[in-house]
Design goal:
heterodimer; A: 245 residues; Rossmann fold; 6-stranded mixed beta sheet; 7 helices; B: 411 residues; alpha/beta; 10-stranded mixed beta sheet; 9-stranded mixed beta sheet; 9 helices; 19 strands; 23% helix; 39% strand; globular
């Protein structure tokens, strides 16, 4: 899959947030999007996935050359897009297992037997150091912040998207959990060949990953791009280089 | 002995004195169900043969083997432990002795005056008893169910109300539940009466020391539903856990009222009420918790939640509490009503579900958290199937084939 973002302008909650974003992510590539608070990172993630509070006013979102600006959210998911939520929703009464089963059906995923399916869930939970009893509970209900973030990665592993947009997968995680989540993302990409765009404030998670492309967004525009060296630059001097670059 | 007329008159006065009826706030939010204390002759008698055919059909659809089928003019019991009586068989003195022992049993007084069927369920010490009861009537079915769990007994009762599938009428049910020391009672009820029916559900429950009473009432059918529960966590370490849920469509009305009381130290009383409404339906959730003096270490909690699926549907959530004792007591109440959470829908859609499936999944999950409280798995499946069918078709009182493929199941 190739995800292309061309001169994207978008409003969120009637406010102009994205002001001409250009970005291309291909399958197998790991991109990182960094930027100060309020720069438009989460709005970009939501716009890619089609959140109803966002509205594209100019530019295009393309998947494999096909414009998806007006595509319903679920159709984007069917193309292979996946959004890891910064604040995953809790839905009491919706069992995780049946939800994943329903989602896999909706995504036309390969049908597998119950045992294999449960085995896969348990293996992923173990890899993420998630307690097994969480699997039997309602979706994210009563989970800690860290458990929710790990559960998002578990969902990604189970739903096998072609392109994952990971909105702050490291927020709210302790040092060990950051490493575990990073390792699981690496493992997932290696296994499936999927591409990923990671949104983060901090470089800590990137110590365990090997991103090829770093993008810095400020005031709704990509203002710097580079390799891993750019992360060190940001660590040293913050986002001070800002829009003038 | 008083005459029947005197009995009825006193019963009606008693009803009007109920705490929930005299509460000034609650008075503003109520519905009226025509209450005729004198059992009138039914317009149409549901003949025994017809009742049998209908009960067989319901059994086949629900996969439930009923221990008794009860209607206005016929009773079929398949369990020797059940004692089912008609009005003429019940000694008024016996009833008064049984139901008026506390002297202020308003609900019992009221229901006694009108009931035509009496079901007595007596458990045995240390034994478990599971019963499925089916109530079907054509026009009018006032029944009374008395559940008595002696020391260490466990009684599970599932009641299915499927009256009025071809017209209007009235179903009224009174439950009197007593759990002695160490006993457990679970009372699950599904009301799926036909459109045009009035439904009255009354429950009086008293939990003794170290006992537990779970009562789960699900309302889907009928035109107007009015419920009143008086649930007392009346023993040390006793638990009373009540759940009420209504799914409304068209112009259905629900007035669900429960009065919870903690009367002993370390007692627990929980009320969880919920509603999902479409069309122009309306639901009043009234929960009152009373924490009495000297109840150190007790817990009282009222939770009310609602989802509105149309702009003309309406929920009044009215939690209230009176706390006479505040040392080491946990007492909380909360209420929230809203349309479907947009973020939750987006979340589900982002995982591949189309909008319709996402809405259904969200609503089903909301309903499941109430229905899953029923420990009788088949009863839960029947309740969920009825509600999913109602959400899909909008029809009231329809009974679909029970499905276990809904998203609410474990798999």
């Amino acid at each position: 899959m190739i995800l292309e973002i061309k001169d994207l302008h978008a409003d969120a909650e009637q406010r102009n947030v994205l002001k001409g974003v250009n970005l291309t992510v291909k399958e197998g590539e790991l991109h990182v999007l960094m930027g100060p608070n309020g720069s438009g990172k989460t709005t970009l993630a939501k716009t890619i996935m089609g959140h109803p509070s966002t509205k594209i006013t100019k530019g295009e979102l393309l998947v494999d050359g096909k414009v998806i600006n007006d595509l319903p959210v679920n159709e984007r998911a069917k193309l292979g897009l996946f959004l890891e939520f910064q604040n995953p929703v809790e839905i009491e009464g919706l069992g995780l297992v049946s939800f994943l089963n329903t989602a896999r059906g909706a995504l036309n995923a390969q049908k597998i037997g119950y045992r294999e399916f449960m085995g896969e869930i348990k293996a992923n939970a173990e890899s993420l150091r998630l307690r097994e009893d969480l699997i039997g509970r309602s979706l994210n209900y009563g989970f800690s912040g860290g458990e929710k973030k790990k559960m998002e990665i578990l969902q990604m592993a189970m739903l096998k998207p072609k392109m994952a947009i990971l909105d702050e997968p490291d927020s709210g995680l302790d040092v060990d959990a950051v490493r575990i989540v990073a390792e699981n993302i690496n493992q997932f990409m290696k296994k499936t060949g999927a591409g990923a765009l990671i949104i983060t404030h901090y470089s800590r998670i990137l110590n365990y990953m090997n991103p090829q492309f770093i993008h810095v967004i400020s005031d709704g525009k990509i203002v710097r791009e580079g390799g891993k060296g750019l992360i060190e630059e940001i660590e040293r001097g913050g986002y001070g280089f800002g829009a003038e670059q | 002995m008083r005459s029947h007329k005197e009995f009825v008159e006193e019963a009606l006065r008693s009803y009007e004195e109920l705490p929930l009826e005299t509460n000034e706030i609650y008075k503003k939010y109520t519905v009226h169900v025509p209450l005729d204390p004198e059992p009138a002759q039914a317009d149409i008698n549901l003949a025994e043969k017809e009742m049998e055919e209908l009960s067989k059909e319901i059994s086949a659809k629900t996969r439930i083997k009923f221990d008794a089928v009860i209607s206005e003019h016929a009773v079929k019991s398949f369990n020797a432990r059940l004692r089912i009586m008609g009005k003429d068989d019940v000694d008024m003195v016996l009833l008064e002795g049984k139901m008026f022992k506390s002297g202020d049993d308003k609900l019992a007084a009221f229901a006694n005056a009108s009931s035509v069927r009496f079901v007595s369920i007596e458990g045995r010490e240390g034994e478990t008893m599971k019963l499925n009861l089916l109530f079907i009537g054509h026009r009018r079915l006032p029944v009374q169910v008395m559940i008595n769990a002696p020391k260490g007994a466990r009684i599970e009762v599932f009641e299915m109300f499927a009256s009025g599938r071809d017209g209007g009428g009235l179903v009224s049910a009174l439950h009197e539940v007593n759990a002695a020391e160490g006993a457990e009672v679970e009372l699950d009820a599904l009301h799926n009466e036909g459109e045009g029916f009035g439904v009255i559900n009354l429950c009086k429950a008293v939990a003794g020391n170290n006992s537990r009473i779970n009562a789960n009432f699900v309302y889907s059918g009928g035109q107007v539903t009015k419920t009143r529960s008086q649930m007392d966590s009346a023993g040390s370490n006793s638990v009373v856990d009540v759940c009420e849920f209504a799914l409304g469509s068209k112009d259905q009305k629900f007035d669900l009222g429960a009065h919870m009381a903690n009367t002993k130290p370390k007692s627990q009383a929980y009320l969880e009420s919920g509603a999902v409404l479409t069309g122009t339906s309306r639901c009043m959730l009234k929960g009152f918790a009373k924490v009495e003096n000297g109840t150190k270490g007790c817990v009282s909690r009222i939770t009310q939640r609602g989802i509105l699926l149309s702009k003309d549907a309406h929920i009044d959530a009215l939690p209230d509490m009176a706390i006479d004792y505040s040392n080491e007591v946990k007492a909380t109440h909360s209420a929230a009503t809203a349309p479907i959470d947009r973020e939750a829908l987006f979340y589900l859609e982002s995982r591949g579900l189309d909008e319709k499936a996402a809405r259904k999944t969200f609503i089903t999950a909301f309903m499941a958290k109430y229905i899953s409280k029923m420990s009788n798995g088949i009863a839960g499946e029947v309740a969920m199937s009825v509600m999913l069918d109602k959400l899909e078709s909008g029809s009231i009182g329809n009974l679909p084939e029970v499905s276990t493929s809904g998203v609410w199941t474990t798999w």
